[in-house]
Amino acid sequence: MQTFKAIVDFGGFTKAAEQLGYAQSTITFHIKCIEEELGEPVFDRIGKKVLLTETGKFLMVHAIKMLNIYRDIKEVSSISGEIKGKLVISAPEALLIYRLPPLIKEFKEKYPKVDIQLKHLDPLKLQSDLSEGEVDLAFIIDTERKNKGIYFEELVNEPMMFISADFISLKEVDSLHNRVYLFTEEGCIYRRTFKDLLSEKLECEGEKLNRNSIEFWSIDALKECVICGLGVAILPYISVEKDIIQNKIFAQEVQTDKKISTYLAYHEEKWLSPSLKAFLEIIRNYANEWRTDEKTKSKELQDEFL
Q: N or C end: fewer C-beta atoms under 10 angstroms in the chain?
């Protein structure tokens, strides 16, 4: 099953062999055994492309479940002994850079035998990643969410900041006209918040708005473009705090109808392994500190920017 999933994940027999450290003949033999057992092919080989057949798509669902169960079984020994295993964690760039590093450092120092794989969170795939076992634990910055089968826990409020190279008064009617709008990826709460602000301030939407915008995959790249005066954007306070202190940008807190926070999320039926329980304990300890800091910074924002 591991070989089968690797072929799907890496897009072919050769790349799967490289990742798993097998000879390509071994990969071919594994798939031949599966196909003989099922009596049907699991892949269509069209030129250089390897595509799942309908049988293969059905098998993929069960392969993920089987591999997750196998991984859970390997962690059973942690219940009465040393904590070990593997955790796959996804989070947006802002959290991977500005919140999670100290937390992960502490966890690795306490539990060195737990392997951690960090993945960039695709907000549009949160439900499927957790439901299919692709991710053990996810972090997301968003308004309150209720996805079927997913447990969400609010950790800390995240103020959203309108950032620009020079002062722009959001109270003035035409302050955002004829600007370049710098957006983060589709599905991201910063992007939705910015579009809501532009809809409120501007009459133009759709095509005209898109002509005046640039989409970024990197927060740091976006910030540098704001600093040089290319355009304006909205990002969480944690990602621009140092730039504000160093007077690189001007920032104003954006008031939203719904509170935006960092949440942790995992599937409600997920077995909480010893390693995951230990990670959650450290997260909650840090979240207490974050909330204390957020209250102080929130007051500073009100005094300085509003």
A: C
